[in-house]
Amino acid sequence: MEEVKMSNMYRWITENGFTYNPLAGECPHSCSYCYMHQLRKRFKNIAKKYTGKLRIDEKELKKNLGSGKTVFVCSTNDLFASEVPQKFIMNILEHINKYPDNTYLFQSKNPIRMYEYFDMFPPNTILGTTIETNRDYKLTKAPPPFERYKAMKFLKKKGGNRFIFMISIEPVLDFDYSELIGWIKDIKPEFISIGADSKGNNLPEPNRAKVLSMISELSLITEIRLKKNIKRILGDEYESCIASYCREG
Ligand code: SF4
Fold first, then answer.
1. Residue 141 has what pLDDT?
2. The domain spanning residue 162 has which CATH number?
3. Domain range enclosing 243
4. H-state helical runs in 62-144
C-alpha cells in the first residue's frame, strides 16, 4: 500500500510494481487475522483512510499508473466484496484501462463477483483468491473457502484463455490434505503463493511436514511462490524448497 512499506507484500509486486488503493473504508470481510488491524492502530493516516464507510479516494483514483509494472489493485480492501457499490468497481476499472500496458492483480475472497466484470478487465490481468484452508474456521465474514474454490473453478473455465489465475494460501491454516490438494488441482491455477501468519494471531496452523508435503505435491502441477513469512513453519526447509522446486515470492 502507498502509505507504509509493506514488508508482507508479494515479492513479485514490490520488485516490479506497486499497490493501487483507490477504495477507502473498512474491508467488510473483517478477517480476524487481517494485517490492517495492526496498521490502523499504528498509523493515523491508515486509520483515517481505512475506517468507516466504503468510499472512493478520489486523489488515488486518478493516479498515473504508468506502464510495464505489476499493480496489485485494492491490496488493503476487497474490491469485489458484495458490499462494494458497482459504481466504485466500474470507476476503478475504467481508470485502470487507461494504462493497459501494466499487469493487474485482483484478489478477492468473493471471487464469483469478478465474473460480472470479465469484459472490463484490462488485457493483462491476474485473478486470484485466498484459499487458506479447506475448512470453515469462521475467521472471516467472506464466503467460506468452499465457495471460493467453486467460484475459481468456474472463473477458470470461463476465462482460462484470457486471464492468469492464482491462489493465495495465506495465512496457511490447518487443512484436510486430500480435500485441499484436490481443490487446487481442480482449479489448476498458473501459480500459488504460500505464506503464514506473521502477526502472532495464534491461528490453527498445519505442522511443517504437512506443509512440505503440500508444497511438494502442488509443485508437480503448478508454480509455487513461497513468502518469506512461511519460514517460521518451514525452518531450514524453506531454503531447500527455494533451491529445488519453488521460487521466492
Ligand atoms: S479480505 Fe483481506 S483486506 Fe479484507 S479483512 Fe480480509 S484480509 Fe483484510
1. 98
2. 3.20.20
3. 11-248
4. 86-96
